Predict the structure.
Amino acid sequence: MNSTDRQSFWNKTRYFTVTLVGITLALFHLYTGLWGSLDALIQRSVHLGLGLIIVFLLYPSSKKNISSFRFLDYFLAIASVVVTAYPLFRYTWITAERFSLLTPMSSLEKVLAILAILLVLEAVRRVIGNGLLVVVLCFIVYFFIGPFLPGGLRSVSLTWTQLLDFQYLSTAGIFGIPLGVSANEIALFILFASILIKSGGSSLMNNLAISLAGRSPGGPAKVAVLASGLMGTISGSGTANVMTTGSVTIPMMKKTGYSAHFAGAVEAVASTGGQIMPPVMGAAAFVMSAFSGIPYVQIIKLAIIPALLFYWGLLASVHLEALRLNLPGIEPDISVKQTLRDYGHMVIPIIVLLFLLFKGFTPRMAAGAAVLAAILISQLRPTTRLGLTGLVEALVNGAKGMLIVIVATAAAGIIVGSIELTGSGHRMGTLFMSLAGGYQITALLLGMLLAIILGMGMPTTAAYIIQAATVIPALLFLGFEPYTIHMFCFYFACLSLITPPVAITSFAAAGLAEADIWKTGWTAFRLGLAGYIVPFMFVYGPALLLVGSNMMIAMSICTAFLGVFCLAAAGGGYLIRKLFWFERAIMMAAAFLLVAPLSVTIIPGLTLMFLLIIKLYLKKRQSDYVAMK
């Protein structure tokens, strides 16, 4: 067999293995979603094992090592099977017969535990990058040096075998709550999104967005906002949204007349909003439910108004930019009637999902039923019908979409396990409190800063989990309501994706737009400005989370929408005409007064806003009259 034949053989072998394992992973989650998950350790071991196999066969160890046969990758894939199979074969011994941290580990168990940690670290490096890898290594190193550190940083002295025991032979480390959430809920929602997209859901959402907003000024940008928002409610992934919808919307925006960096920024912000837009809200929402004890359906209710405010601010910004540049709209290629006739039935699986969630079924059961509904409903029309090949591709794509969450939650489990074992969470919280000086607003600002820093180069899920173990307990000690603080930290973990200097989603959009990454990043930050302000507002005024009297909720929502519009005008520097610096300052002041959760600020905010609008309108009429003469 010559080199060409060997290359072809190993390519086919790797493709076949990834396909087979991907189908197995997808069907495993569909089965356990509909008929009940297995015991925690078994469910999580199978989930992680199958995921790691795909990771090591799909992601090369380096860009240089892309040859057909990669011995190291096959070795690591086999090792993944071994380390995740051991808890299955020794399940009774691990869960019922031995005592965690007391029963001595065998030599084999020590070797497997070390190998398991190394496999997760290598998977993190390949799939996510060095950001999360460094954070995990820091927490592992802290376990060994903590007893020698001074003051509040000092931790209890433990042996290295206790670390291995806790991380590998329990459901508190690698196989802890984060991986459990991934194995029980998140995987099924990712599979649902994959099947929906493959069967025409993306075409339905894109075509509807074009039909609804395409003809208005600067229509392509509004199409990008609506399409990415609609897709985001299902996929819940910022960067993935950019790469799917952005490949269509960014060229449309540029062709209409938007600058390249503005087009990229619009897509980045719209795609990031998918993680805060119900019903799916990305992986972190499920993790939030597990850590906070707040039911997932309640999280959906809490998130809806802030998410709408986020997208309203973005729509206002792109509309005002279109008016400033006098940009035209576009004529849709397909009518709403044609779109609904071809793809409208694919809304039914989403309705099934929401109906079951609000009826009180578990997210796992609701998602499993929605997956089954999507497969069956797609057969109703030729435009959406999934043949055997299409179904296989959807299942495999769903399995591939799970990888980043599997790896991130396994790594987060190592972090949480190290924090629990050393008791460092309480000490970090104490240190955080001392830095805040006991002041609530200072603590919130520090929490925002930490959430953004943790989210730089790290998945939202992992960034939120670290906060749940360290920062959130400290903020709760200051008297905040649990649901507001969990939502607060979750929001800023999401917004880190568009916050310079490491704005991953903005940089991905800049690549598609062929734009300067810094211009794109800072423009995205400006366009998403409402997202940085609203969390502070709902912490102090939970009416924006639909908590409180009906009158207060209605008043807060109305003034918040007006305030976010003022914020968009101040940020873009345009309203009826280009605004001078002092007019932008007035609009910014009106924005803060209207968004603020205080009834006494509403009248001053409305007064500033209407006085400036009236002034601009009268000046515009005067200018038009002079021009006509």
